[in-house]
Amino acid sequence: MLDKTQTQFSHVKPGDTKFVGGGLRDFFLYRDLGIAQATNGKVIAHLVKANLPPEEGTGWHRHEADFQIVIMMKGWARFMYEDKETLVEAGDVVHQRPGIRHYLFDYSPDMEYLEIVSPADFKSIDVEPAAQIPKPTPWPAQRTED
């Protein structure tokens, strides 16, 4: 039976939390969905959206995490997973196995994805490159806000 003392019910509506900077990457904005608090740090779920054009990308890294999925909600992003380029488009779901070396190097101005990771305080560790990174797609000079 589920131990209800370890987690709490959570219901976050769109207006309850805002997209803010200060997350893992300064070129993205993050919207907390209240899951880390509800699970006492077992899981984090947040929406991530593009804030600035992809200049350097995330760099090669891996996560110290037991579980991670990315669900692309809007737009697209291009990743390198080890030595394989992967285009992730709206509606796609990616399970990143623990420790996989990856690099998010390109994304559309409207990119937004849901990321779910366990544990909530996962670490991002820089690693040696696994392959050469293609150039990102330039953004239009002016971008319109949603």
TrEMBL record:
UniProt signal peptide: none
Highest taxon of the lineage: Bacteria
Any Pfam family the entry gives: Cupin_2
Domain Cupin type-2, residue spans: 51-104
Protein name: Cupin domain-containing protein
